[in-house]
Design a protein that fits this description.
nine-stranded mixed β-sheet; 9 helices; two-stranded antiparallel ribbon; alpha+beta; globular
Amino acid sequence: MLLPSDMLATQSKMLYQLNKYCVERVETRKTATAKAVREVCKVVQTVLHEVEAQEPRFISSLAECNGRYEGLEVVSATEFEIVLYLNQMGVFNFVDDGSLPGCAVLKLSDGRKRSMSLWVEFITASGYLSARKIRSRFQTLVAQACDKCAYRDSVKMLSDTGEVKLRIRDRYVVQITPSFKCAGVWPRSAAHWPVPQLTWPHPNLIVQVKTEGFDLLSKDSVIMHGKQNSMEGDAWVMSFTDVENQLLYGGCRKRCLSILKTLRDRHLDLPGNPITNYHIKTLLLYECEKHPRDAEWEETGIADRINGILLQLISCLQCRRCPHYFIPHLDLFKGKTPASLESASKHVWRLSREILTNSRAFDKL
């Protein structure tokens, strides 16, 4: 299809603006983040080796591979989450009955196998492996390790939370989360995925994702708050971070995400934290379904994809609901106040309007 010359000129200008923005803003953010990650991981590795010396069941899985740290997620410029993969889940069955959206339990497959479990003292009378009990033990060990390790003057544990959180050099906050990797299994609550009539992702990628599986994290979930459920303290939170990242290979999907994260950090880091990078990644995955062809994710289409995601974000904020990509009945805005979501929608609308109406918007964003 032939495009009018003025449309081509506008598209060319926008592409120039975006490339300039990537060089001046996005790459600067990436460089600063990489530097912070190295600084944080150096300290956390020392703490975790101290933990391992006290309790060999908590073996550090934080290792650098091809310039990336496995299990590390950048939450914001100063906040990180590190997943600590635990060993031996074998004697437990994974139970996902939907009573706690986004959560599941690990139950002894046979009561006689209790003594065979590496985590025997964390198994409840009903045969469930308690996420909270494991986290509590890990918290105690990390607190002791912080007092003993070589970085004890620059690392301290935050005591006002049920999570294992460290403040490093009064600048960074790192959450360390015990976890089990569930490879080769797929949760029942995500069984609908992918929706049959959609053409993205490719069948080979679907097989790859379902084989890779997901993680079960021992962390506090806003979903559990106020639930009168006996499983609450024992439940594990499902995380699909690794496979979500796999789905974003190809075209300029990851570049689009980097631009959106930079815009979020610079303009949408608001009180109450109504918009996180995870919300943005989730909406980008939905955008991939709406625009399944790789041709729609070439450089020339990035501006349209960014606008589409920002408009979808406004819609979610106004409806006060952001469905999880794999578990749509899990609302990612749960726990956010209506006032913070309303205020955020106005901020995103202003940002979106600026991008849509000003061809030089990225010069000042």
